Amino acid sequence: MSKKRDKVKIRDKTNRDKLKVRGTGPMQDKTGTTIWDRPRSGFKTAKPVSFDSAMTLSAVFACVKILTESVATLPLQMYKLNANGTRAQVKDHDVIRLLYNKPNRYQTRVEFFEQLMLNLVAGNAYIKKDYSGKKLVSLQVINSGSVDPSIRDDGTPLYKCKIGNKTVEYTDNEIWHIKLFGTGFVGMSPIAYGAQSIGIGLAGVDKTSRLMSNGAKPTGALKTDKYLKKEQRDALRGELDILINGDDGDLAVLEGNMQFEKISLTPADLELIEIRKLSVEEACRYFGVNPILIFSTDSSTTWGSGIEQLVDGFHKFGLRPYLERIEESARIHLLQRHEWDEFEFEFKTKDLLRASYLERIKSNKDRILSGQASPNQIRMEEGDTPDPNADFLLVPVNMTTAERMKKGNYGAKADETKTASA
Q1: How far apart are CA 177 and CA 117, in angstroms?
Q2: Where are the alpha helices (DSSP H) in 272-407?
Q3: Parallel, antiparallel, or unpaired: how do β-strands 220-223 and 175-179 relate?
Q4: How far, in Å, CA of 92 to CA of 338, rounded?
Q5: What is the value of pTM for the model shown?
Q6: Least packed by Cβ within 10 Å: which of 71, 120, 288, 407?
Q7: Who contacts 298 (Cβ-Cβ below 8 Å, separation ≥6)?
Q8: What CA–CA distance (Å, rounded) separates 143 from 92?
Q9: In sequence order, what are the beta bridge partners of 132?
Q10: Of 151, 162, 146, 235, which Cα lies nearest the Cα of 185?
Q11: d(Cα 248, Cα 6) in Å, to the nearest integer?
Q12: How far apart are CA 12 and CA 406, in angstroms?
């Protein structure tokens, strides 16, 4: 048996032995060491993949952009929960004032949530909390690439943040940590776990760039029946370099029955276009975005053909997990313990899911006729000025309750019957 086959056999035995000593599920996070958001197992990538390099792939950039901007432009609202099950919007609480207006001295609300989401779509978002006494006065996002999270031996989370030329340690009381699904302490990074697919996409882009910058000329070799000296070969390489390099050049002349034979694969042989199309679908799978939403015209979807169906599907399967994570995390990490059961946060998604004008007219008509909303409520939702004579609810007169049907009383009172007969 050859040494090469021996290596394969030893490697397979090693892999089987590793599976015997541990389960195939996630491993528990260890204390005292940095906890990574990337795969523990080693694998090869076609090109080096980092956050910056991944963002140069148009599909990754488009997925991150639509997730980031969609969440950042949704207003975050705060509600007080009443004992009777109703709730009322709160605007005078210190936390919602900070989140809704200017979370820190550098950013507006939209800019703050854009940076937060830019980190969250990569697995984890870390926000430094600053207090004046017990009052929260500032929230500043620390980019996740500069944070090394770990767990102390006593179970306390610790965050080592590289800020400028210094490394600062923060506790969980000072850091608001939002994470995607993961092992419990850190979220799993879609970019890290999708590095192989993203690397193939980057390699396809790189191959296309090199091919086009070279005038789409293939690499090859010169064939001749004669034996050439080193000086002659070097001279031919210099004179006939235009056959394989450069966008333009003079006409090459091959002498002495010399022939040029290409040795590189063509884009068709490499299926370069198909590889680049596949990289779009792969990126969309990792980020949970429908390819149609990032303008992939070759893709199809079962979400529906109208923009309303696409947006509704994107909200349910793409945005909602992010919104729920931020809302719940804000309630637990930004409010005092005694306020957890009194308040809740919610993004205003009504404008995102808003139907077309004609669909809204039909829906608003049904709401008014069924008594679900007054005309003034509809006018305010549409941005119109309330009418002083439109604060009423309409009730269909041809409807009654099942209980009245059993008793034979369809809603008219006894005195009303007498008055009518009189």
Answers
A1: 12
A2: 272-287, 307-314, 320-334, 357-369, 375-381, 402-407
A3: unpaired
A4: 18
A5: 0.74
A6: 407
A7: 277
A8: 30
A9: 135
A10: 151
A11: 51
A12: 76
Residue with tokens 């879609």: 190
User: Each residue of 173-226: pLDDT tens digit?
Assistant: 999 999 998 877 899 899 988 888 899 888 888 877 776 666 666 676 777 777
**H/E segment holding residue 198:** helix 195-213
The token duo for 325 is 């994570």
Please classify residue 182 by burial: count the beta carbons closer than 10 Å to its beta carbon, then call 0-12 exposed, 13-18 middle and 19+ buried.
middle
Residue found by looking up tokens 């978002």 in the block: 125
CA 383 to centroid of chain Cα atoms:
31
Two tokens, residue 257: 């029955």
Condensed to tens digits (0 to 9), the pLDDT of residues 353-396 reads 666 677 788 888 888 888 888 999 988 888 788 898 888 888 77
State the Cα–Cα distance between residues 351 and 42, nearest whole angstrom.
Answer: 44
Tell me the torsion sign for CA atoms 37, 183, 344, 158: negative
Q: How far is CA 305 from CA 302, 362, 395, in A?
A: 8, 20, 36
* Token pair in block for residue 163: 């800020």
For 313, counting Cβ atoms within 10 Å of its Cβ (0-12 exposed, 13-18 middle, 19+ buried), the class is: middle
Sheet containing 135-142, strands listed edge to edge, beginning at the edge strand earlier in sequence: 135-142, 124-132, 175-179
For residue 30, give both structure tokens: 């260890």
